[in-house]
Structure formats: structure tokens, C-alpha cells
Prior knowledge:
mainly alpha; disordered N terminus; about 270 residues
Amino acid sequence: MTRTRARGGGSTGRAVNAALGAAGLAAFLALGEAVPRLGVVKEQYFPPTSRIAGALRDELDDAAFWTDLGDTLTGWALGLAIAVGAGIVVGVVVSVVPYLREATASTIEFLRPIPSVALIPLAVLLYGTELRSVLLLVVYASFWQVLVQVMYGVRDVDPVAEETARSYGLGPAARVRHVLWPTALPYVMTGVRLAAAVALILTVTAELVIGAPGLGARIAVAQASQAVPEMYALIVVTGLLGLLINVGARSVERYALAWHQSVRGEVSV
């Protein structure tokens, strides 16, 4: 039995998917233009796509928009970095230290379902509208995405490989590096990808509710001042950010897992 790399089918499939995605987006934009024009909904509540595009162009010409975008990306990046680092370290330690997993299981299951938005009053009480309030919510929400995936990955380590490493005299650090980490890395990357999306959601939500500087606060100001096209334009920006973050996370995942069968696209023949 040999293995061959799937080549042509993959590129053709990606081209077809891209074409279908573009067609779907074009249909969605056309629908957004037609629905208010036909009077199905009032333009004052849902402007046509062309008006939203004009408002978006005006936003891009505003220097304050780029400042707010930078604030949002700063909160997102810092919160995600802290959550990923803490999630990996805590997940590995909890999983490899004897009896620690059982001792912390009930605490983790108690804390993990708590919605991050429920911590908004605490964040405001502690830090007001500062960046630290945003980080508190982002880190709390994103941390669990990484932690759970790391714990699943460690649990998936082959006991035979673990015992073989022990028999060859590998110490704890070497076993983590050569046995545990390669097995857990696909899970870690999944956790990072999920955490990246959750971090963006919580960043914008915190800015919107708390009033911390960023796109969320800008959306709230537009809504309060009845600048409806500008509000929708800013919402579109957050959607584009989410799309770019997802594409970037998948690219990093493919790069980090270039050795993994799921990324190499190998099939048995």
C-alpha cells in the first residue's frame, strides 16, 4: 500500500468553492440593495447596500476610525495572546501532574459555563472603561477554548509511545516535547482558532457595552446618534475582521501542522 498526494482535485475544489462563495456574496449584496428599495423594510432601519458602502468609504477616510480599529485589534491581540499562553501551560500541567486533573475537574466545569458578559459589572467595577476591562472579558472567554482542547490533546497521547519514551530514559520535559506536544498540537491549533473568533466577539462586545475605546464604542455612538448607515458600515467592518482572523488562523494552522496527514491531504491508494 502506498500513499500519494492529492493535487489537482484540491486546487480545482478550492477554485469552485471560491466561485460559489463570490456568487453567494454577490446575491446577498443584491438582496440587501433590493429589500429596502422595494419597501419590504424601511430604509431608515435598513439602508440599501449602496448607502452602507458609501458610509463605509467615509469611515475609511476618517482618521478616528483607524484609531478605533487599532484599539480593537490591540485588545483582541493582547487578550488572545494571554489566553493562549495560559491555556497551554495550565492545560499541560493539569493533564500531566498526577491527580491534579481529577482535583480541578469540578472547578473547571463550574467556571467554564459562566458567560463572560456576566463579568461585565465586575470588569467595570475594577477597571472602568480601560483596556484592562476588555482584557478581563477576552481572556476569560478565550482561555477555556484553549484549555479544553489542550486537555483533550494530552488525553489522546498513545500510552505505548509514552511508555516507550520512559523506557528510553526520556525525562518529563523531553516526553512533553517529543511525545505529548506533537499529539496535542492539532488540538491546540483548533483551540487557538476558536479562541481567536471568541476574542474578537468579546472585544467588540466589551467596547459596545462598557464604552471602552474601539469599534464597539464607535458602533454605540453611531446608533445613539441615529447614523444608521454608519452603524451598519461599522458592523460590516467587524464582520470582515472576523473573516480575516479566521483565514489567518487557518493559514497558521496549516503551517504549524504541515507534517500532519489532515493538512498534507494524503490518501491511501
